[in-house]
Description:
This protein is mainly alpha-helical. The protein has helices at 17-34, 39-49, 53-77, 83-88, 90-109, 113-148, 162-167, 187-203, 208-219, 223-247, 253-273, 280-305, 310-352, and strands at residues 5-7, 14-16, 174-177, 182-185. It has one domain (10-340). The strands form two sheets. A two-stranded antiparallel ribbon has the order 1-2. It has a two-stranded antiparallel sheet with strand order 3-4. The termini are far apart.
Amino acid sequence: MDWLYLMMPIAGVNIFWPGLVILGLGVGIIGGFFGLGGAWMVTPGLNILGFPMAFAIGTDVAQMAGKSLISTMRHGRFGNVDYLLGITMLVGTVVGVEIGAQMVMWLERIGRVDQVVRWIYVVLLACIAWIVFADVAKRKAKEREALQAGKEVSNLESGLDWGAKLQAIRIPPMVHFKQAGVYCSMWLPVCVAVFTGWLAGILGIGGGLIRMPALVYLIGCPTHLAVGTDLFEVAISGLYATASFTYKGRTELLAAVIMLCGAAIGAQIGVVATKYVKGYGIRIVFGLAVIGCLVSVLLRQLASIFPDARVILNNLAAADVLGFVSAISIYITVKMVSGAKAEIAAKKQAAGN
């Protein structure tokens, strides 16, 4: 079965290349649907497949940049991108990315990069999962209260209303983001950008894992606009991060190209699916995806703590991340197909009338 493995010329490791194809296609679908670069799954996934963590980070940001650019163009056609908001966040993102990248190089020099990055992932994923499902629970509670009162809850209203409270902080200059329908201090998106940029550098992500929920919960964007705007920002930060890691010799271009071929196809499916799944449907699936990734990272971390069970735990981690990416991708694809069929049937019926 040697033909199933490829030698990576820069990283110097043999990699199971079908795993790269599954990650690329699946994360393309998931990234286009959630507005993420998908690195929160790809970086641990590449590490599980055999890449050293620094190479997993550098390789991931390379494929992420190209895929996110493709998804952004598609979302732009649907009017799901607030370009002014994305550009406002650019400077903070670039600064944060470089700080994070320098921290990765320092952690690599002292031999702590794998463990530190994995624990940051664990904490971050756990926090995001809690936020998403706490929001869903509060939203359902509001719907029950409204139903008892004979009223309806607006589709734009969230369970967590942090965005409205932060928008009320009037620190000049104030900016009106018309596409997103947000009026807030310019410092709000800039501060979010610096933090997510730091995550992009140290975790090898475009910042989308935290930026998409941050756009929804902290800035107050509607979910579908947060998806498109986030992808625009992911593409920008991803291009810069790719240049930074390639200069540092930590990008495996062969693996990035293999993954990008699948991701380019998957991204189209994910973006179109957002036409048929809106608001809280996207948030719930996103929360489930975060939990799946969290389990894989924990398994990998346990493998480093319990060497006697390393082989079993590593295999379970690989099965979890690849299986979860596949399951979520199939769900999104099915939703896209069923939604498209219903839309076509409705158009035919309207034409017949």
